[in-house]
Amino acid sequence: MKEKAHQILAAADWLLSKDIQAVFSAIDRDGDSARVVGGAIRNTLLGYSVPDIDIATTATPQDVMRRASNAGLKAIGTGIDHGTITVISNGFPYEVTTLREDVETYGRQARVVFGRDWTKDALRRDFTMNALYVDRHGYLHDPLDGLEDCFARRVRFIGDPDMRIREDYLRILRFFRIYAAYGEGDMDADGLGACLRERDGLRHLSAERIGHEMRRLMAAPKAAIALRMMNDCGLWEIATGGLARIDDYDALRALDGIAAETRDPELGLIVLAGFVREDVDRVADRLRLSNSERRRMMTGWTVYKQFRQADTWPDLKWLLYVHGRQGAIDGLLAYWAAFEGQYRTGSKPDFSKSLQTLRTADIPIFPLKGADVIALGHPPGPGVGQLLKSLEQIWRESGFTLDKKDLMSRVVINV
Ligand code: ATP
Ligand code: MG
To answer: Rounded to two decimals, what is the model's pTM?
Structure first.
């Protein structure tokens, strides 16, 4: 198994690249060693792309700074207090972190110091599959026997799960997120039990940290399974302060092959937690959504409500015109999920056809502006808006076919 890992890793583009080899040449010298650790190894072994590369080293942060600069690489010391230096090689950032170990001080309070022991560094990490290291030649170092778990896609805590969670409650969310992204088979029972027992600790986490992990969880392939588990363990309510409509979310993710938007947290959150408008605001606050994420959620929710409450199928072109393509598609998909999930009533609309229309139809553009009716002699003022509104209605009823000239000919000015 180790041989197989070596073959995969030694052939990885990112390890063969001149950029990372330059970082190794700078740091992995003079009695110090450096190894890539964490997600880059896990993702490579499992066949995923590698978005960022973390390097662990025995060199002190000061030595990393100095050696990188001497080698002509840019070194940024923003994380220097935690032992992390960002080394930029040919434009690519590498997070280089000095090995750490826990030192017992007062009672149970752990203090962290820089160290030179790879096993101790591994013991501080979260899951066995995240504690794999590789040197510059692609040789794997596996101090805690995580390789088997990695290939089997088993997400298991290092050490006693309850204790590890108490050190950092974010690990509860990481457990579900890493499972959703890379896991296979049942979730690890010991880990799940610990998450359940320690769940109250989630209340200590900042909204930013919760939001960051939950967004990433929702983008993952097995998000529906992980969220159902979280909900069953009482975690969703603590993390977000609300109820989750898991069946609807399952139905949304069953549409993964049909629409890429199903992995977007904004849409996922409408389906899961946006039952009434207040829920949308609460979830957006609780997960610290950005203004644009919040806007997208609110627009999609508004369209979703229109689908749910309408007696007849809404005018899709009008939805595109009023809410834009993204909002219209989000709303349709949210309704589709809810229909398949809980609210299946009456005959099933042709969702695929409507989705196709929303994706491909031109968005109507209303051909008139206020200046046009003023040019015809209408006095400026609030009346202009009212007139435009009624013309817009006529335009809509024409199936968006009337052009500027047609509409201008209908303007009657009573001065
Ligand atoms: P990805 O980059 O895809 O999110 P990753 O596993 O690389 O996955 P990072 O947040 O980049 O995640 O962290 C890098 C490594 O640091 C992890 O693989 C793990 O070994 C360790 N780590 C990260 N967060 C924690 C944590 N909260 N507790 C313990 N170890 C952690
Ligand atoms: Mg990473």
So the answer is: 0.90
